[in-house]
Amino acid sequence: MTVIIGMVMVIGAILGGYLIEHGNVALLLNPPELLIIFGAAIGSLVVATPMKVIKGLISGLKSIMKEAGYTKQQYLEMLSLLFIVFSKVRKEGLISIEQDVEDPEKSPMFSKYQSVIHNHHALRFICDNLKVIITTNMPPHELADLLDIDIEVNAHEEAMPAQALQKMGDALPGFGIVAAVLGVVLTMEKIAEPPTVLGHCIGSALVGTFLGILLCYGFVGPMASNLETKAKEGEIMFYVIKTALVAFVGGAAPQIAVESGRRAIPGGDRPTFSELEQAVRK
Fold first, then answer.
1. Which of 84, 85, 73, 72 is nearest to 281 (CA)?
2. Which residues contact 181 (CB under 8 A, 6 or more apart)?
3. Tens digits of per-residue pLDDT, 222-253?
4. In whole angstroms, what is the distance from residue 46 CA to residue 111 CA?
């Protein structure tokens, strides 16, 4: 919702100022120049970007209208799930969660927390590393190093769509200049026309530069920043899980392990100690 509000503000501010100066809005609606700018920009994106990154970008753009990041409730559900897992391991041993981590969607323990089930990256991260804990006797510091590698690789993968979109946005002013130059070329063919006709043609040509800069800094660039922010928020969730897992493997009680994970949550979304205690008691 905030993305739509921001876009409306950008358009409203620019068109509002333009209309105050008695500008002709029809002159800004130039489909051929939009075709040149957008078509060339998308073509350059396809040339520069592997298909798997393009698919990730399309998926990211579909979710861009959603609010970025995780809510306090989602963090509480994640920590509550980890508390249940740790408690079961403490009471019944590591083998007791083997079936749960093999097929978490069918696990009664995991299925209570649908926000975790639908977060496929975090769910895979939890299950893969619980399998490591089950099958090996890895010291806490080695497990922490392994988790850091996993987080770094995932962060790199999640950042690529935003980087590709940003590069496309950076190219838009250049393609706007290309559209403007082509407009000037067409204008030169009409050099014998009256000044009013030439003025209209030159104005249409300059619209290309305007559109390229507007699309870059008003829309595409901010959308790339939005995707980057979401990727970083996802990385924070991984660090929360990592902190809790390492603390538990290091011998901490389930309550202390999830409390360690709570401390990795940024202040604005971090539940209080009492809120976490109440959540795990449920």
1. 84
2. 205
3. 999 999 988 888 899 999 999 999 999 999 99
4. 39
CB 244 within 8 A of CB 64: no
Question: What 8-state DSSP symbol labels residue 69?
Answer: S
Whole-number Å distance between alpha carbons of 46 and 40: 10
Give Cβ neighbours of residue 113 (< 8 Å, ≥ 6 apart): 77, 78, 80, 81
Residue 267, number of CB atoms within 10 A of its CB: 5
User: Is 164 a residue whose pLDDT tops 90?
Assistant: yes
Tokens matching residue 229: 């922010």
The reported pLDDT for the residue numbered 68 is 57
Q: Identify each DSSP E strand in 24-180 by its residue range.
A: none
> Is the pTM here over 0.85, yes or no?
no
Nearest partner of 248 among 140, 145, 150, judged by Cα: 140
What angle is formed at CA 255 by the lines to CA 253 and CA 256, rounded to 5 degrees? 65
Q: Please name the residues in contact with 136: beta carbons below 8 A apart, sequence gap of 6 or more.
A: none
DSSP conformation class of 270: P
Give the separation between CA 136 and CA 63, rounded to whole angstroms: 38
Kindly report the average pLDDT of the chain as a whole number. Answer: 89
Domain boundaries of the chain, sorted by first residue: 32-281
For the beta carbon of residue 87, count every other beta carbon within 10 angstroms: 16
